[in-house]
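QA checklist item 7 of 12: single-chain prediction sanity check.
[x] sequence parsed
[x] length recorded as 302
[x] structure emitted
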Amino acid sequence: GLWHNFGDSADATNMKSMLFKAFDLGITHFDLANNYGPSPGSAEVNFGKIIKSDLSSYRDEIIISTKAGYKMWDGPYGEWGSRKNMLASLDQSLRRMQLDYVDIFYSHRPDKDTPLEETMGALATAVFQGKALYAGVSNYSPEMTIKAYEILKSLNTPFVIHQPRYSIFSRNPEEGIIETANGLGLGLIVFSPLAQGLLTDKYLGGIPEDSRAAGKSVFLKTEQITPEILGKVAALNELAKQRGQTLAQMALAWVLRHDCVASVLIGASHPEQIEENAKIVNNMNFTAEELSLIDKIAPIED
């Protein structure tokens, strides 16, 4: 499955067409969080309306995940990993999506001020209450992931997934989390596999007006798109052409080359992008020479 971050109510019609296109292509995992918007909560509201009106009969074929941890409301319990925040946030998410349960509930980020036992205990409670089927974490270090695994195992709670940022331009998981996931039997579901759009053909000719970098995105800013980066994008694009793929298709296939990477999350804005990305199944293999060339273009120390 592929998915990420739906838009606000103004994009509800487009969201519906994207959901239908994804489902028709066999994509059954839809990834949300309490704060996805733009206005926090709006993605879950829109998603819930569409699920209820058009896809409710397919609920048992669909994996729906949500998260808590980033700021959602004012006051001391509106973010981070306290039991109060985690369980209140999940209840709010279920109301917004008009669901009885989610398939996966994540701790969206680690909280240095709350004992890990408390945060993981909240995930366990959510599972035992029947409000989530599985527990997950996102943005956790390898060491914290191992501790989380041990705590959840002691609580008989199924911990199945870790969600890290990973792409050709963001290779930190190669420094521990991939090895940890393999060792624990966890799956990874990767966010930002296209580096916020850098690993597409969008920036080959400069910065288009409708791009994230030209807008107010907090994830990708104009100053990050240096001549050096654009040179790397062009070199990777040439390799993708030789493979008979778009740059985006190659970048997604590259992330999925690890056995423990169960899925990648795409932040599409049009149904056509989903269709194009789904074509990665036509070529997901890499030669040793191709992998070596990617390593030279975008070394791990970057």
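[x] summary fact logged: The first helix runs from residue 12 to 24.
[ ] second reviewer sign-off
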